[in-house]
Design brief:
The complex is a heterodimer of chains A (529) and B (351). Chain A is mainly α and 529 residues long. Chain A has 25 helices and no strands. Chain A has one domain (10-250, 268-513): Orthogonal Bundle (MetI-like fold). Chain A has helices at residues 7-35, 40-45, 48-81, 87-93, 102-112, 127-137, 141-153, 156-164, 169-198, 201-205, 211-218, 223-246, 268-300, 304-314, 316-336, 338-346, 349-363, 366-379, 382-385, 391-416, 420-427, 432-461, 464-469, 477-486, 490-513. Chain A is globular. Chain B has 2 domains: 17-243, Rossmann fold, CATH 3.40.50.300; 250-348, Nucleic acid-binding proteins (OB fold (Dihydrolipoamide Acetyltransferase, E2P)), CATH 2.40.50.140. Chain B has helices at 55-63, 109-114, 123-133, 149-161, 179-196, 207-213, 231-236, 241-247, and strands at 17-26, 29-39, 44-48, 70-75, 78-82, 85-86, 94-97, 167-171, 199-204, 216-221, 224-229, 251-258, 261-264, 267-270, 277-283, 288-303, 308-314, 317-323, 334-339, 345-348. In chain B, strand 16 (288-303) and strand 17 (308-314) form a beta hairpin. Classes of the chains: A mainly alpha (529), B alpha+beta (351). Chain A binds chain B through residues 1-4, 418, 420-421, 423-431, 438-439, 442-443, and chain B through 63-65, 67, 86, 88-96, 98, 100, 102, 104-106, 115-116, 118, 159-160, 163, 169.
Chain lengths: 529, 351
């Protein structure tokens, strides 16, 4: 149908090209900003102002991703292959730390323990150790989920025959299981690596000065340092992201549901203890801490129940702001990216270019996306400059930063939609516009909505771009938590955190964990630093 | 069953389909090569060929879903492609029925059928008529996923016919049905096409289907039309050994021919022309007869009820024989073979 080009098709192509530009401009702006003075970038990049935070970023990201690989693989194996007591409950709970944005979780861990905390007996998590633990705890399900998915479809025959040949569990894991799950472990931990590299909130709360923190603090005083560090981080993120892409292997699936189970024997109780420690720290402790701070805060102010309700009332405006920013961004991203998603789904050159660019801005830490847009906008002519720190610009940054979700889900749906439907429609006399609105759009609807939902979820948890770009006085749940932790208002932070976690939990559950349209966990809520 | 009662009126101006010098390639692969074909008004042309021969591509070119490299397609006096013209699929008035029906999954039966009617005032009545035509009255509100394969295919045909196209294209429309249902729906569709008198092209890889459906059959191989003719012509007078073997079982004997008399494995065979030299002689299994005792050994006997098929070995060469009777021989028996007589085709060795 390439022949039936008309006004509609030209319009669609124009829409796709415009969005490709929207993805490319921030990247180009960042590169130009960092490299416009020759030699300056190199000078910054090789100075200790850059190398020290950069090595810290790498160290914390490598540590968190390695720990997550171990924790994620072990938990997935225990859930799907062992006789661990309470297997079903553990299976439900162990992935839930994902709904807690890392900076929210980090805040709970940092202030719950040590002197002045809820449990003074346990020493405070802090610095490198605190950042690494927080990032691991709130992101390891990125490994658990794909490994579980892989284990559940791995043909049991391989393990059964290894077992009948007399191998023990360790040998079976090494020879029969590991080769099956290795790609899933790899891509999951790469995701944790990218996530940790991008993280701003958790490392800030743990007072560990990584690249993102230096960028945040030096963006006004030394823009060249910020931009050079940004470029360094962007290149690292994009390289890491493309490594994930290349390592996705496809294996034969099995529909047989005969599951091989291994008795844990003496390891039974240590395994149970380890799982519950992870669930306790990653899920239960933060929730209890938020609740305790909220109640205690209300009690301290002497208002009791009224104080607690008063606290909730104060959250109405940030909650509405969060919902509005997320909702508008989701709708805008879903709608504007349909043309590009179609191009990508059909595998055209424009589509490939667009999805590559979207993936690159997606891999870009939120703080860099914001930095790049600020850099471009403040130098732009007046008509564009007036958008600085306005709601439309904030939405634009979210759309550019998280648009990859929409591109990807739409493209997947377009690629899997049988060509026969639009072709059939054209033999029934339908032109391109009628085909699109009556056939394609209704069939793609669920996928487009799912993509928008993931954008919504990401915006909900986003922190640094919101801090930099939100209009003055525009509070979201994330910025409210951030401000409250900075000023030590634990009660406010606790309540706002509870609300945010519940919201994000509901959305994650319905959009990521329960949604068959989202086939890959790869594209899941990553940016919430 | 179908074709009785109310009829959707097809435009009374019946159109011929005229294809001239049509070529198309996908990248380096030539799919359709210099094809010329004419389908007379109101006739059904069966396009028969092995998978990958380009028959579906030819159909898609006619529909306007692909744009040919060269050549032209005309319906009546409307030029669809060629001489600088290209009419988009949606403007061709050419209907198409796809292999698996292609019913829009999000629309119910009535809205599927009404899709091509573009909100005409009488579309409700049209839908009812179309459903009556395929004997599915009362199915208006059913969703496609609740239909059986045969029902879905009948709705698909009703949907393609309701905008009253000039030409109807059918791309292996019964391939996904199981054999009993397939024969039944096929019979109904043949009757319907004949009643409507619509010009149609029917793609299939199944010889039997092509013979049943087509007023004429075009045999296609590697992007080229090998032969066009009525089913009886193709069977009796194939243009090559390949066509002969593709449209039916055939024994190919290498034989020396003198003045139209071939000396074959099964004895002398009189050819339809007084040729001489080395030839490949084509003898259908039903034209071979046998008597007890001889140098042919029976290897396999397959009894089909109405006929029996024998596989025999003559000096290391396999010969097939079909007899309209119950088995009279068993594996291991020895017989002697001869030709029944009648028209026999032969081709020089290089064809």
């Amino acid at each position: 149908m390439a022949q039936t080009s008309g006004r509609f098709n030209r319009l669609a192509r124009f829409g796709a090209v415009a969005m490709v530009l929207a993805f490319v401009i921030p990247l180009a702006g960042l590169a130009w900003g960092a490299l416009r003075v020759p030699g300056e970038a190199a000078g910054v990049a090789f100075s200790s102002t850059a190398l020290v935070p950069f090595s810290r970023s790498l160290a914390v990201a490598l540590t968190a991703s390695s720990l997550a690989a171990i924790l994620g693989t072990a938990s997935a194996w225990l859930i799907s292959r062992s006789d661990i007591p309470g297997r079903r409950l553990i299976a439900v709970l162990v992935n839930l730390p994902l709904v807690i944005p890392s900076f929210v979780g980090a805040f709970a861990l940092r202030f719950a323990f040590g002197q002045g905390g809820l449990i003074p007996a346990i020493p405070r998590f802090d610095g490198f150790v605190g950042a690494a633990i927080a990032l691991t705890l709130f992101s390891f399900p990125y490994v658990t989920l794909p490994v579980l998915a892989r284990l559940s479809v791995a043909p049991p025959a391989i393990e059964e025959s290894a077992r009948m040949l007399g191998s023990g569990p360790v040998t079976i894991f090494k020879d029969a299981v590991w080769p099956q799950i290795r790609p899933a472990v790899w891509s999951g931990s790469m995701l944790v690596f990218l996530y940790s590299l991008s993280d701003f909130g958790a490392v800030s709360i743990m007072r560990y000065d990584t690249v993102t923190r230096v960028i945040f603090s030096s963006r006004l005083s030394s823009p060249s340092t910020a931009l050079t560090l940004g470029l360094l981080l962007a290149v690292t993120a994009i390289v890491a992201d493309s490594l994930t892409r290349r390592r996705t292997a496809r294996y034969r699936k099995s529909s047989a549901d005969a599951v091989v189970t291994y008795p844990l024997l003496v390891w039974r109780w240590p395994a149970v203890a380890a799982m519950w420690l992870v669930i306790g720290l990653g899920l239960i402790a933060p929730l209890l801490a938020f609740g305790a701070w909220w109640i205690r805060g209300a009690g301290a102010s002497g208002d009791g129940l009224a104080g607690m309700v008063q606290g909730l009332g104060d959250l109405v405006s940030p909650l509405l702001n969060t919902a509005m920013a997320g909702g508008v961004s989701a709708v805008v991203a879903a709608a504007l990216l349909i043309p590009l998603g179609r191009e990508a789904g059909r595998g055209t050159l424009l589509g490939k270019l667009g999805s590559r660019a979207a993936a690159a801005t997606y891999a870009l830490p939120g703080i860099l996306a914001a930095l790049a847009v600020v850099f471009v906008v403040v130098r732009a002519p007046g008509p564009i400059f007036v958008f600085y720190q306005t709601f439309p610009l904030l939405v634009a940054v979210y759309v550019v930063n998280f648009g990859a979700y929409s591109v990807r889900t739409t493209a997947d749906a377009v690629a899997s939609m049988p060509a026969v439907y639009p072709e059939m429609a054209s033999t029934l006399g339908a032109g391109p516009a009628k085909r699109f609105f009556t056939i394609e759009l209704p069939l793609l609807g669920p996928a487009i909505a799912a993509g928008g939902g993931l954008v919504l979820l990401s915006v909900l948890k986003e922190l640094p771009a919101t801090l930099l770009l939100a209009p003055i006085g525009f509070d979201t749940l994330a910025t409210r938590i951030w401000d409250a932790t900075g000023e030590g208002f634990l009660a406010d932070a606790g309540l706002a955190s509870l609300v945010l976690v519940v919201l994000s939990g509901v959305l994650t559950w319905s959009l990521v964990l329960r949604n068959p349209t989202i086939r890959t966990v790869r594209i899941s809520a990553r940016k919430d630093s | 069953m179908m074709g009785n009662g109310t009829m959707v009126s097809v435009s009374n101006r019946l159109s011929a389909l005229e294809i001239t010098g049509l070529s198309h390639r996908y990248g380096e692969t030539v799919a359709v090569s210099d094809v010329s074909l004419r389908v007379e008004p109101g006739m059904t042309m069966a396009l028969l060929g092995p998978s990958g021969c380009g028959k579906t591509t030819l159909l898609r070119l006619i529909a306007g879903l692909e744009s040919p490299e060269s050549g032209s397609i005309a319906v009546g006096d409307r030029m669809m492609v060629g001489e600088g013209a290209f009419v988009a699929a949606e403007n061709r008035r050419i209907g198409m029925v796809f292999q698996d029906g292609g019913l829009f999954p999000h629309l119910n039966v009535a809205r599927n059928i009404a899709y091509g009617l573009n909100g005409r005032a009488d579309s409700e009545a049209k839908v009812r008529q179309a459903l009556a035509m395929v004997d599915l009255e009362g199915f208006e509100d059913r969703m496609p996923d609740t239909l059986s394969g045969g029902q879905a295919q009948r709705v698909a045909i009703a949907r393609s016919l309701s905008p009253e196209p000039d030409i109807l294209l059918l791309d292996e429309p019964f391939a996904s049905l199981d054999s009993d249902l397939r024969a039944r729906v096929r019979g109904e569709v043949v009757a319907l096409l004949a009643d409507l008198g619509i010009t149609s092209v029917f793609v299939t890889h199944d010889r039997e289907e092509a013979f049943v459906v087509g007023d004429e059959v075009a045999v296609m191989r590697s992007g080229v039309i090998e032969q066009v003719g009525t089913p009886a012509d193709l069977y009796a007078d194939p243009s090559s050994v390949w066509v002969a073997a593709f449209v039916g079982d055939v024994n190919v004997f290498e034989a020396d021919v003198v003045d139209g008399l071939a000396s074959t494995l099964i004895g002398p065979v009189v050819l339809d022309r007084a040729v001489s030299g080395r030839h490949r002689v084509l003898v259908r299994p039903e034209d071979v007869v046998f008597e007890e005792g001889g140098r042919a050994v029976v290897r396999q006997v397959e009894f089909y009820g109405h006929d029996t098929s024998y596989t025999l070995d003559v000096d290391g060469t396999t010969v097939r024989v079909r007899a309209m009777a119950s088995p009279t021989q068993r594996a291991g028996d020895r017989v002697s073979l001869s030709h029944r007589g009648g028209q026999v085709k032969a081709f020089p060795e290089d064809r």
